[in-house]
Design a protein that fits this description.
single chain; 206 residues; alpha/beta; Rossmann fold; 2 domains; 5 strands; elongated; P-loop_NTPase; DNA polymerase III subunit delta
Length: 206
C-alpha cells in the first residue's frame, strides 16, 4: 500500500487520531524533535519484522535530517508486506522531493483563530510602544507567529474602526514581506514603524 504524508501543525492531535482505534501491537510511533539517521535505521529494522496484519509505522518530527530521509527512500518506495508508512511534518518543505514523490500527500487545512493584539490601538501611548518593543527584544518568535501578530494588529484596527489609507496599508504589506523574506529580522523593525504610524494617526484625531 502506498504510504501517506500528512502536513499539519498539530502533530500530537493527528497521532492520537490515527491510533485511536488501532490495537497497540499494530502500530509503532517514531516521534522526534529532529529525525536523524539512527532513527531511520530503527524504522527500517522495525519494518522488516514479520507481521500477519497491516502494521502502521508513523514517523513524526519537527525537523527531518536529509541523510535520514535518503535512508528511507528504498523502503518507502517498496515497503515490506503489510507495512504502511505514515510521515507527519509541519511543512512539506521539511521533506525532500524524492520522499514526497513516493507517497500520497495530505495537507490539512486549519483555520487558526485571530489572537487579540496585546495593545489597545485606540489608546496607544509612546510608553505602551516602548514596553511592547522591550518585551519583543526578550522573546523569540517564528516567522509564522510574527505573521499572525501582524494580522492580529490589522484585525484590532478594523475592530476599532481605524481606517487605513493606501500609504498605511503599504506599510503593512512591507512588514509582511520583510517578515517573509528575512528570517533573522528583529520584530521591532517590523512593528515599530506600524505602531508609531498608528500613534501619530490617533494623535491627529480631533
Amino acid at each position: 500500500m502506498i504510504g501517506l504524508i500528512h502536513i499539519t501543525p498539530f502533530i500530537d492531535e493527528l497521532i492520537d487520531e490515527l491510533t485511536l482505534e488501532c490495537d497497540e501491537q499494530y502500530y509503532e510511533v517514531f516521534q522526534r524533535e529532529d529525525f536523524k539517521i539512527d532513527d531511520a535505521k530503527d524504522v527500517i529494522a522495525k519494518a522488516y519484522l514479520s507481521y500477519e496484519q497491516e502494521m502502521r509505522i508513523i514517523i513524526a518530527a519537527n525537523k527531518y535530517n536529509i541523510a535520514a530521509q535518503n535512508a528511507l527512500l528504498k523502503i518507502t518506495e517498496e515497503p515490506p508486506e503489510n507495512i504502511t508508512f505514515i510521515i507527519i511534518a509541519k511543512n512539506k518543505n521539511a521533506l525532500i522531493p524524492t520522499i514526497r514523490s513516493r507517497m500520497r500527500l495530505i495537507a490539512h487545512k486549519h483555520k487558526a483563530p485571530v489572537v487579540p493584539f496585546e495593545l489597545d490601538v485606540k489608546k496607544l501611548s509612546l510608553q505602551d510602544i516602548y514596553e511592547f518593543c522591550k518585551h519583543n527584544d526578550r522573546s523569540q518568535q517564528s516567522k509564522e507567529e510574527i505573521k499572525m501578530r501582524i494580522q492580529s494588529l490589522l484585525f484590532a484596527l478594523f475592530q476599532a474602526g481605524i481606517k487605513l489609507n493606501q500609504k498605511e496599508l503599504a506599510l503593512f504589506d512591507k512588514a509582511i514581506a520583510l517578515n517573509q523574506n528575512d528570517a533573522t529580522e528583529k520584530q521591532n523593525y517590523i512593528f515599530l514603524p506600524l505602531l508609531l504610524r498608528i500613534y501619530q494617526k490617533q494623535k491627529k484625531k480631533p
